Amino acid sequence: MSTAVGYAAVAGQVVVVGAGAPVLTGWMRQVRARLEGRAGAGVLQPWRDARKLLRKEPVTPIGTGPAFRAAPALLVASTAVVVALVPLLSTDTPVSGHADLILVVALIALGTLALALAGLDTGTAFGGMGASREMTVASLVEPTLLLSVFALSIPAGTTNLPAIVSGAVHEPARLASPAGLLAVAALAVAVLAETGRIPVDNPSTHLELTMIHEAMVLEYAGPDLALVELGAQMRLTLLLGLLSSLFVPWGIATGTSWAALALALVLFAVKVALLGAVLAAAEVFWAKVRLFRVPELLAGSFLLALLAVTASYFLSGTS
Amino acid sequence: MSGSLYTQLLDLACGGFLLAAVIVLWRRELASIIRVFALQGVALAAIAVLLGAHEGRGDLVGVGLGVGILRAGLLPYLMRRALTVIDADRRRYSVAVTETRETQPLVNVAASLLTAALLTLLAYAAARPLTELHATPATRALPVGLAVVLIGFFVLVTRRRALAQVVGFLLLDNGITATALLATSGVPLIVELGVSFDVLLAVLVLQILTTRVREAFGTTDIDDLRELHD
């Protein structure tokens, strides 16, 4: 019985994130449109876009190799594996023993790397430029991601993400410490940079010179483009979900009961929708920073993460 | 006050204290640097009041309140006044905007943030033997004070604007005060009063000096004072 609930939780995470990611993106666009005084296209627009793209015939540019063709599938697949691993709905799943922090960050980086290789593979100027920028940002974001979650793993005594989350559910005082607050700030900046949101990259830009993520995927069309967009949307949902699991873990199922799982599902949707709305509202007021200022922002968030680690190591008195 | 709540609040105040020092390093607008410095003064006062309340010493609470009034109210007020004079001049004579911003520090901002990380680790390493002597929540937070001292030194060395350097000097002094409070559970009232008046006088003198420097050279960029060597 207990394993049935566990498998249901894993399947639920993958299905909810896969089906909900375009809806989340549509919801964020809708919030943004309303704040800017526009009517907006409705929350289901990304799904309609995907349907339109999937009906087109697949086209690849001349001279592109396997890296270009495999990247969209690899991006979606690696993201789906991470979604199955991390504790979004339940901390007690059959795969929760493998959900190590370093593995999760490495799988996220694998998707980024696949897309960057695809950008290089096209051989166009913008593809290469986008790939080089994406790798610059990624190399600065990965240490921050690792360190900020590491700050939370010190009081838990393990780098296993479900263990960290279930520890935080039982001891909420861990999150109100300076280490917890610094880590949430650092992780938030890292999530913004990793998903290409506004202070670092503008997801709706049409000016090639300012693009980072979009410049890499300029050459994709048809079903491949639908996959790339689904992958990007799933990563956004995944990282926002991870942020909410780590810092507002209440409501995540820690045991094996169907009722807790259903409650966790509803709360997960509410938390991610709320985070998305806050992010969309903030983006209305922010401007994209210059590309040469991005390392400064990321160095700041790295410093916050490092301070979080030192604070949780020295102040908490476990040393 | 229960033990765990006291530890939590003290940790929170120390975290805010260190964070303010880091943000001073991060920001470029002199106005926002001064605002963050005022917030750091609040955190320092909170540390002193918490220590006083925990040990039941009224004089320490008094020291905390005094520190709060001086460092969160009076010193930022003085610096803001010097800044408004510069700002008004800028509007009148349309001098370059760079006067109210720390546009070109000697070490760029990303590198100085990483240096701050190293300095913090150094402070933790250096304070290790002291912490091990007598591990209480207060002495465990001792590295925070040392880190702010080092970051203050760093700001003092790498910034060009006179006002940014004054903030660096005051960060250094905040760090020293915090270290004294955390290490010895509070200095005598008379010592703290002496130090506070010293700092106040220094800032007054530096404010006048800044105004004179600007009148003589038209800028508060300290690097331009090199000519005085000849």
From TrEMBL, chain A:
Enzyme class: oxidoreductase
Gene Ontology terms, MF aspect: oxidoreductase activity
Cellular localisation: Membrane
Plastid listed as a keyword: no
Chief place where the protein resides: membrane
Keyword Oxidoreductase listed: yes
Enzyme nomenclature, EC number: 1.6.5.11
Keywords, ordered alphabetically: Membrane, Oxidoreductase, Transmembrane, Transmembrane helix
Superkingdom of this protein's organism: Bacteria
Protein name, per record: NADH-quinone oxidoreductase subunit H
Phylogenetic lineage: Bacteria, Bacillati, Actinomycetota, Actinomycetes, Kitasatosporales
TrEMBL record, chain B:
Localization: Cell membrane
Membrane disposition: Multi-pass membrane protein
Keywords: Cell membrane, Membrane, Transmembrane, Transmembrane helix
Principal localisation: membrane
Transmembrane segments: 6-26, 33-54, 60-78, 106-126, 138-156, 163-183, 189-209
Protein name in UniProt: Hydrogenase-4 component E
Organism, scientific name: Streptomyces spinosisporus
